[in-house]
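tokens incoming
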């Protein structure tokens, strides 16, 4: 009986650890992918009204977008700058605020790749 309990306890603790170690893209829902693609496209457009409306429609804060969203393999601020969207990049940069030391291993970024 103790061997079964030990096995069940080991299994019960291993499942959550495995679930959190999977990449975020594997668990990305179609809704989340659509939201991220729309946010990336709005950031690329360099139209602040479009960006604000898109972020608001998905209940996303600028700071969260700036720190956690990656578009086509680069962070969203660099992505916007590379596409000439200086207004959007500046807005996202301002949302981060002061420079501080951040444990980058603790921050999970969401990456979405799409065709332009």
């Amino acid at each position: 009986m103790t061997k079964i309990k030990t096995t069940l306890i080991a299994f019960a603790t291993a499942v959550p650890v495995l679930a959190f170690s999977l990449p975020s893209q594997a668990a990305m829902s179609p809704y989340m992918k659509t939201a991220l693609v729309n946010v990336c496209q709005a950031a690329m457009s360099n139209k602040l009204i479009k960006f604000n409306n898109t972020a608001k429609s998905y209940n996303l804060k600028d700071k969260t977008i700036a720190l956690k969203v990656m578009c086509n393999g680069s962070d969203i601020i660099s992505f916007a700058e590379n596409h000439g969207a200086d207004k959007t990049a500046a807005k996202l940069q301002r949302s981060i605020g002061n420079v501080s030391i951040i444990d980058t291993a603790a921050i999970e970024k969401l990456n979405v790749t799409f065709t332009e």
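note: The first strand starts at residue 69 and ends at 71.
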